Task: structure prediction
Amino acid sequence: MEQSPIEKVIEKISASFGDKVLSQKKEYDFHIVEVERDILHSLVKFLYDDAEHPFRFLTTLCGVHYPANEKPYTLMVQLHCLTQNLRIRLKASSGEKEPHFDSLTDIFPAANWMEREAYDFYGFKFKGHPNLKRILNVDDMDYFPMRKEYPVEDLTRYDKDDTMFGRDSSKFDRKKLMEKKKF
Result:
């Protein structure tokens, strides 16, 4: 059976970047390639310059925070080959408290705003970015709001009926929790 065009692209990536490709999978008809952080820029340039399958459209670039992972900060890049209607998602992760990646603005000028957003919300720094500063939040903000570093619920609220959320109130008593917690 002949390979599909996207399978040929995945094979080219594996042949060119070897063990720097950490994993590849297909989810919901979308091919995902996870790579080492240090080759992400080279891989994007490789796909951009590919004569047979040129990925010349940057669909999105965004940050993701998976707090349970060993490398919790992930940069996700989606590219589209418009000539053959192929899509690919690339992921690279960092375990540093202040994650940094190479900027893609030299390949895709539109990455400028997307990288600024990833910096603004997740604190990702981009080497070679022409103007890396906050884009939506105030400049003097000293934290990154999309990082999952704070509890989801406000434990000080007593006005919520936890049984509405499927919790047994005898096992989740806010007053007892608040007595244990010192502010």
Summary: The CA atoms of residues 8 and 176 lie 59 Å apart. The longest strand covers residues 57-65. The mean pLDDT is 88. The chain is about 25% helix and 25% strand.
